[in-house]
Structures are given as C-alpha cells and as structure tokens.
Amino acid sequence: MTVDQMWLAIGLLGQAFFSARFIVQWVASERVKQSVIPVQFWYWSMGGESPLLAYAIYRLRSHLHPGPGRRASSCTRGTSISSIMCRAPTRARCADRSR
C-alpha cells in the first residue's frame, strides 16, 4: 500500500464515520418518537471530521480545509452543549441517556 492509498483510506474512513452519524440520530429519534440529536451524533461527527481534515491538509486541497475545520469546531461546541443539556434536571432532550 502506497502512502497515497493510505491517505485515501483515511479520507474514506473519515467520510464513513461522518455519514454514520445520521444513522445514530435516526435510531435515537425513533426510540423517543421525536427528532433529537444525541451526544453520540457529535462524537461520530468529530470522529469523521478529524481524518477528513488530516486528508485535506495532506493533499493540500485548499477548497477542502474550510469545511472540516469549521465543522470540527461546531462538533466540539455541539458536544459541550449536549453534555450540559443531559445534566439538566429534565433530561427530555437527551435521547441517548434517557432510557
């Protein structure tokens, strides 16, 4: 396996992780019968964005840098907000820990 093939695999793995977050949200929403964004959604997002950003930097694709970088910061923010909401006395919005 060449270095370019390894980086392509890293990029594809990141894309797969990033795409899987929608399945996580769908399952959590079906469980509580309303649209929710569970904490795991943000972890899957960060898990996908990190390899995508690394791949974009390696390939020196300037048009790819803003997307993963900006989304990674919003994923970090979403994780912290979700964690705060899950600690609140009423945990109605925290689908992943309510059951």
| Order of H and E elements | HHH
Rg from alpha-carbon coordinates: 16 Å
* End-to-end separation: 44 Å
Please work out how many helical segments DSSP would assign: 3
The assembly state of the depicted protein chains is single chain
Query: What structural class results from the helix and strand content?
Result: mainly alpha
Shape: elongated
Overall average residue pLDDT: 76
* Count of β-strands: 0
Helix content: over 70%
What are the low-pLDDT stretches, counting only 5+ consecutive residues below 50?
A: none
Major beta-sheet overview: none
Kindly estimate the percentage of residues that lie in beta strands according to DSSP.
under 5%
**How many structural units, i.e. domains?**
1
Question: Can you walk me through this structure?
Answer:
It contains 3 helices and no strands. The protein has helices at 3-32, 39-59, 66-87. The protein is elongated. It starts with a helix and ends in a 12-residue tail after the last helix. It is mainly α and 99 residues long.
